[in-house]
Amino acid sequence: MRRATTIQEVINQLDIIIDNAVESNSRLGLFAYVYRRTTAEILKEVQKGSFENNELLEQLDVVFANLYLDAYQQYQNNEPVSKSWLFAFAHSDKSLSILQHVMLGMNAHINLDLAIATSKVMAEKEIQSVRSDFDKVNTILFSIVNEMQERLSRVSPILFLLDWAGKNSDEKIIDFSMRKARQQSWNNSNLLWGLGPENQVGSIDLIDKVTLELSEMIAAPKSRIIGFLLKVISKFENNNVGQVISKLKAD
User: What is the model's pTM?
Assistant: First the structure.
């Protein structure tokens, strides 16, 4: 796949990944579908002119997406990838819940890739000038949390058990991936931007290490109750990726 230059090209390439995942019954398609859904939402807002700087926001979104698309392709080619992406990709054949598979991708992409992309796009620009649009993306993504929650319940019939465990734990998990992770990524973006491209390697490695630790917690939660419930939830989920994605897409 050639590098995407527009958000629509990003969506087209995500469709290819999803189609390949359906054909091979790979759970790599689960994050790809959720990412496509959020990317389509961003494109809709760009087309409506909802951002202060729509051209810059599209540039940022494309650079951001290419980091995932590159990592996916590199993994397929047995080439080196970041620790957090390697963990997410390598766990695609593990018996985790659908929610956990989605979160592993979100964690690597938002906590690591977004900071790299923002610092790159805003190099030699004032990073605070993109803050308003960065925050608006947070709001847009958070607005579809309830939608994704409902869609996940179609393919994970006892996901509600996480609610039983206390205080809407499932929503907190999704909220972490979409809002809190982006907030932390803004801090990391400022760190990398301040260092400049020539001095970022050590800090990127550190961010990757911290992101990997979060991935490990997603795959094996410290809470025994949550960990047990996620194992039970996964046993009642459909293992056919094509059927899962079809149900997630259905209106």
Answer: 0.90
